[in-house]
Automatic annotation (TrEMBL):
Enzyme superclass (EC): hydrolase
Keyword line: Hydrolase, Protease
Protein name, as recorded: Serine protease Do
UniProt keyword Translocase present: no
Keyword Protease applies: yes
Lineage per the UniProt record: Bacteria, Pseudomonadati, Pseudomonadota, Gammaproteobacteria, Methylococcales
GO biological process: proteolysis
A Pfam family recorded for this sequence: Trypsin_2
EC code: 3.4.21.107
GO terms assigned for molecular function: peptidase activity
Matches recorded under InterPro entries: Peptidase_S1_PA, Peptidase_S1_PA_chymotrypsin
Amino acid sequence: MMNRLGVLVGGWLLAVAALAGLPETVVRVKPAVVAVGTYQRTRAPAAVFRGTGFAVVDGLHLLTNAHVLPEKLAADKGEILAVFFKAEGRDRLRRAEVVAVDRPHDVALLRIGGKPLPTLSLGDSERVREGALYAFTGYPIGMVLGLYPVTHRGIVSSITPIAIPVPRAGFLDPKLLRRLNRPYRVFQLDATAYPGNSGSPLYDPETGAVVGIINKVFVKESKENLLSKPSGISYAIPIRYAERLLRQVGLR
C-alpha cells in the first residue's frame, strides 16, 4: 500500500514540476508553430486555414499531417499552398511547397522560402509512457481565433493500435483494411483537440521536444468507424514516422 502511495505521489510531483515549466516552454514553442492552408487573393476569404504545422531542422522545413494538404489547388485562379504566422506583431504569409508525404502515417513535409523560423527539436517517441503529461499548440478552430496559437495539455491515456478489428465485414472499407494489414501504434490523449489542431506538435512541457503530431481525422477514421457520433478523444502520430520522412530526404 505504501509503495503504491509512493508511486502516486511521485507521479503527481513530476506532473507538477512539468506544469511549472510549461509557461516558459510555450513561449519558446509558439514562434515555430504555423497555420497551414491556402491563399487566393481573389477569393473571400483570401486565406483559408486547414490545420497546423511546425518548423524543424533548418527553420525552412515544416511538418504537418498529410490530410491537411488540399487534394488539388485552383492554380488557374492563383490559389497557392501557404503557411501563416505572426512575427514582430504582424501577420505573415509564406508560400509553401510539398517536399515529401507519408500517407500511411499521415505525415507531410513542407518547405518555405525566406527567413528561417524558430525550430522545435524532435524527441524520442519510443520513450513515451502512458500517464505522462504532454502539451500541444496549434490553431484549433482555424481562422476563427486569428493567428493566435492555442495550447492544451493532457496525459497519454493509452498507446493503442491505429485500427482495431471489426465485428462484421460490412464495417470494413479499403482504408481500414490497409491499416489493419499494416498496423502501428498511436498515442491516445486525455485532452480535447479540434480539426484545426491536426498537425500540431505534441511536446514535452519541460523541454519542448516533440514526440508526436496531433491528428484529428486520419486516426479517428480507423479507431471510431463503429461509432455513429465521433468521440472527443484526441490522438497523435508518434514523431518517429516524421523522423523517417526527414531521413528519406536527407535532413537527418
